[in-house]
Amino acid sequence: MKFLVINGPNLNLLGQREPGIYGENTYESLCKRLKDFAAAHDSTAECFQSNYEGGIIEAIHGARGKYDAIVMNPGAFTHYSYAILDALKAVDVPCIEVHISNVHQREEFRHKSVTAPACVGQICGLGFYGYEAAMGYFLSRENVTKESFRG
Ligand code: CA2
User: Fold this and answer.
1) Any atom of ligand 1 within 6 Å of the Cβ of 76
2) Structure confidence by residue, pLDDT tens digits, 64-80
3) What is the domain-level CATH number for residue 95?
4) Is residue 151, in this structure, part of any structural domain at all?
5) How many domains in the chain?
6) What range does the domain containing 101 cover?
7) CB of 71 closer than 8 Å to CB of 35
8) In the chain, N or C terminus with fewer CB closer than 10 Å?
9) Which of 5, 12, 22 to mutate to test the pocket of ligand 1 (most atoms within 8 A of CB)?
C-alpha cells in the first residue's frame, strides 16, 4: 500500500522538548521507522509535516489518487480545525487519526477531536507504535473501500 503520514504543528520538535509526554525520539526517527515498517510490508510511507493548517489541507487534497491511506496526527489542530475535518470529508482516501500521548489523561480541551469523525478510527497513547498500528490495520484490510472500512 502507499501511505501518506501527516504530522501537524510542533511535531517536528519531537525528541527536543517534553520527552516525558512525547518520548525522546525525533521526528526524523519516526519517519525512518514508518518507512522501514512500510517497506517490510511491501509498502511505502511518505512523511509530511507542517505547522500550517493550509499545508495540511493541501496535503490531504493531494492524496487523492496518489495514496491508499492517510495516517495523520493533526497535533493541536485536532481539537478545533473544522477546515481539516472538511478536507478529510472531501477526499475518498481513508484516514486513521493517531496521537502519541493519551489525550484523555491530559487537559480537558484535548479530549475532543473535531477531526476524528471523518476518520476510520483513532489511536492514542501508544507512542510512535500508534502510527504502525494504524498502518497495520489498513494492511489487514487492503482492497477495502473507504465506505466499508468501518465494517
Ligand atoms: O499526543 C499527540 O500526538 C498530540 O496530537 C500532540 C499535540 C497536542 O496538541 C495534541 O493534543 C496531542 C502537540 C504536539 C506537540 O509536539 C511537541 C513535540 C515536542 C516538543 C513540544 C511539542
Assistant:
1) yes
2) 999 999 999 999 999 99
3) 3.40.50.9100
4) no
5) 1
6) 2-146
7) no
8) C
9) 22
